Structure formats: C-alpha cells, structure tokens
C-alpha cells in the first residue's frame, strides 16, 4: 500500500502531512503539487478523476468551464509533491475512449483558473498571501442575485477535509444547526467539496449570501441559492 512507501513520509509540523497551501512551517519551499489534465471526456466528473489516480491523495480539484461548459481541462492538487510526480506518469493513459494529457503546471495557472471559475474577471489571488480577490461585478454574481431563493444554500469549493462544525462556525451569525448541514459525499464516503445548508427562513438564506467567497480553511467558498429537491438528490447520491 502507498502508506508504506518511505517517500511518502514527508511531514510538516506535528500533523504528519504536507499542506500544499501552508509554507510557514520553517521548511525550505517545495514545489506546489499541482498537475493539469487536458483532453478529458466532456462527461467527466470529479469521481472519474479520483478513479484515474487510484491511491493518490487529492486535496483539491477544479474542472475548468468555458462559456458555461466543461472545457475538457482540469487541475488537481495533491497532498505532497511526490504524488504530483507520480500523477504525471499517467500522461497519455485513457479515461474512457480518450487519452488524457497529464503535465506539471505552475501554481499561478491553478490560481488563475480558480479565480476565473469564481467569476473574478481577470482576477488573480495567491492563497500564500491570503490576499483578497478583486470584487468585480461579474455576470455570474449578477445571475445569483436574480435567482429565486429558498431556505437552502449550496456551498461549492469546500476543503476535502471539511467537517459540519466548520460550516456551522462559518455561518455562526445565522444560527445554523448541525443537523441542517449536509456535506455531499461520493459513494466511497469521501466528500465532493459541496454542501447544502438549510436556514431558518428565506430571508436568512439571502442574508447568508454575504459570506459568498469567504474562506473556510484554505479555500474561498462559493455560495448559490438551491432548492430542497437539489439537496435531496445530493443526499441520495451520498447514500448509494
């Protein structure tokens, strides 16, 4: 098993694992463990990417959209640089009927892609410096304001280590109960990076949108108006 490989015994601080977003532990800087995938099937999901890299620890992934459609590109961040090295060995292997290019890229490319996905027009931010992203009035932001609200909000872009307590704390000003938080999971139990939160009222959900693009852990989290049907479907998928 991978855990027995001595090359994976890289530690940073007392946690025993490398945090790709944290370079403050007094260690020499290391390569940011991100790869880019190109040529993915257009029906590709995050589950397909997890299966494409069996045994490797993915801490973040981003499916790149262009004009509202999946572009066939993705960025994958691993827990350690050596895992990114192993991931590159999958270059030109098949996913379905398509062979996929896997190659190293710069962390700036990944951050640009995250900024674009969140709707920051031309914006760039670096998690290392915790800089606030530019607050441009993108089309995506305006579209959210025009959607019909219910008591439910969808969260996207959560850390894969997120717990209910993190989300309750995130919305501490809105009296969110623990049982009103559903973290979406894959069938194997690993989180997808999405969650659904039910508030006391529609007005409370609207007010909670003020937390859109605030941080949980190392991630800027995007909020969307959702519906009971969407939340139920996500919970059903988690139980399959």
Automatic annotation (TrEMBL):
InterPro entries in UniProt: ESRP (IPR050666), Nucleotide-bd_a/b_plait_sf (IPR012677), RBD_domain_sf (IPR035979), RRM_dom (IPR000504)
All copies of domain RRM, residue ranges: 33-107, 151-228
An example molecular function term from Gene Ontology annotations: RNA binding
Keywords for this protein: Repeat, RNA-binding
Keyword Repeat in annotation: yes
Entry annotated with the keyword Repeat: yes
PANTHER family documented for this protein: HETEROGENEOUS NUCLEAR RIBONUCLEOPROTEIN-RELATED
Name the record gives this protein: RRM domain-containing protein
Lineage per the UniProt record: Eukaryota, Viridiplantae, Streptophyta, Embryophyta, Tracheophyta
